[in-house]
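User: Fold this one for me? It's Methyl-accepting transducer domain-containing protein.
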Amino acid sequence: MDIITQLKADNTRKKSRFMFVTFLISLLAAFVESIFEKKTGMAVLYGSEAALFVVLFFVIDLCLQKFRIFSYASVIIAYLFGIYAILFLENNFTMSIVLFFLLTYSALQFEQLLFLIGAFFGIFEFVISFFMPSAELGIIRDMFPTAILAYILTAILLYAMIYQHQNLMDSFLLSIKNTIQTMEEQSAAYQEEMSALIDQVSNVNGHIQTNLHAQSEMKSTVNEISKGSVTQSEQITQIAGHAADTLHSMEFLTQVSDELTKEAREAANTAQLGEKAVDELTLEISDVIDTIMELNNTFTVLTQKVEETNTFTDSIKQITEQTNLLALNASIEAARAGEAGRGFSIVADEIRRLAETTHETTEKINRNLADLNGSNAAAHDKLQLSSTKILATAESSQNVTTYFRKLLKTLNGQVEKFKEFDSLSKKVTGQAHEVEGASSELAAIIEETSASLEEMAATIENLTNDHQSIAEALNEVTGQAEQFREKTKHLRKNFTRKND
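Assistant: Here's what I get for Methyl-accepting transducer domain-containing protein.
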């Protein structure tokens, strides 16, 4: 049953019940009037009609719910009881007035067929009343033309009203039908839009949930990076401290290198002087060949020079030991410096090897000087025994000159290497300065980065909280939209079921 039919059925039901109430009240009123006027036949008629009317209403209207049948049955029964009253009980002018009431009663349902049936029965009753004998027959016949004319005009007027009402009702129902169809179309379009909106909200909710998860991971990552930056900052600070210590060590090493360079230069000058002294000694030994006295004097001088040279070799030995110790310390510091000290470690190894070479050479010089001392002692002892020893002394002095030349060459080489070591130490010192500055700058940058990461983590946390609130709101909106969509579907199904 569609909604139009439902509306018609509801309208028919309400009108039939209104007809029942109206006619029942009129019957009860007529029944009471008949009792007061002591018209037993009419009272029984009205009472029987009322009882039958109630039975028909409960059976047809309430039980069978045939509202339209009840309307037809009630009109026909009303007129039939009227005909019965005219034929068998009494015929008076009052019955003509009742026919106008029944005509109006037939129009209450606003159905043309029902009204025409009632109008036909009314005219039929007017005709029966005109021809039936009655105490008021004269009045009936005198009023018949007027009454029948008024009845017909009233019927025409009521039929016109029914016709207009039917047209208006049809237009109204058509408008309702069109409105319902439009509402159904709009409801379908609205439901599609609502479904699309719910899907979009669900997609947005899914994206926000994904972003929320990604932000949580990003927050964890930023926190880990921040912790790593703090650790790196501490490590860089430690590296900067080691670089500062290395810088101080390199400055000290540079100072020691300068001192060693100066001492090496002094040793070279001393060796050069020793070479000159040996050359002079050689000349003097040549002169000693001519004279023993001059040889004794020269030998004495030579003995002094040899003793002085022994002192020099001791100084050189100490210098080489200090150089070796410094080279060992430099290797240790280079190992601590790591990659930055690898080049310096190579230089330290070269210095250590030079120190070892110098030490070996000094040992040789010591041994040679020891031999020279022994030779000088033997020559001094045997100087009185044989002048031929002077020649051996001359040869020994020549050997000493050769050794002094080698020593001078070695010391000059050491001086050059000490110069290179000094330049390298200064270069490493400069690099250590740069490393210290870079480490400090890097530590400051890492501290700033850590602070920025902490701010970023706080911002991400705020965004995460905001997205969490939005996600919760979207979840609520999505749930409400889903409930609304289910309700819309349910209402649409009910509406469609009613229309079907």
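One thing worth pointing out: The CA atoms of residues 33 and 397 lie 183 Å apart.
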